[in-house]
Amino acid sequence: MAGNKAAAAASGAQPISTDNLRQRAAVAEFAVPPTTIVVDDKKKQAKKPQSPSIWQLLDEWEVVYAPIIFTAIALFTRLYKIGISDIVTWDEAHFGKFGSHYLQRTFYFDVHPPLGKLLVGLSGYIAGYNGSFEFKSGETYPPEIDFWTMRAFNAMFGIFLVPMA
């Protein structure tokens, strides 16, 4: 009797009396073997394999065309009319001065890591800039400075980030 009460308490059943416990249905000792049905599938065998739909092709080739499309969009948005303004913008005034210091090989101290400023200096070197321009904000570039090449060189890093992402 005590064993039945413990079993009832362990199972979570709340018996009205100890004789009326719910019990699990017993599993039959013998099982009916499953029968296999043989169906003649000549129609399915005669069908040609279907070509994949356009959606399946787009899904399969997404890893190829998506980076190409996004890189083309990045190329357009970063280079469209990049040389239309011949006025020094704020970022060019800030980083151009540091690039000039690198090109003139003069010492200066900056608390930030130098990679961006080194790349600005490299863009100036590639464009044939000698480091003599002061890069005052709002000032017009002199005709001997190829600012389009300097801007485009630095914009290429933003373009190349897109397919790597």
Fold blueprint:
Blueprint: H1 2-11, H2 42-46, H3 54-60, H4 62-79, H5 90-104, H6 115-127, H7 147-164
- What is the overall pLDDT average? 83
Helix run count: 7
Order of helices and strands: HHHHHHH
How far do the termini sit from each other? 70 Å
State the helicity in percent bands.
40-55%
| Shape field | elongated
Instruction: Sketch the major β-sheet.
Output: none
Low-confidence stretches: none
Strand % is under 5%
Strand segment count: 0
InterPro entries: ArnT-like_N, PMT-like
Family: Belongs to the glycosyltransferase 39 family.
Membrane topology: Multi-pass membrane protein
GO molecular function, one term: dolichyl-phosphate-mannose-protein mannosyltransferase activity
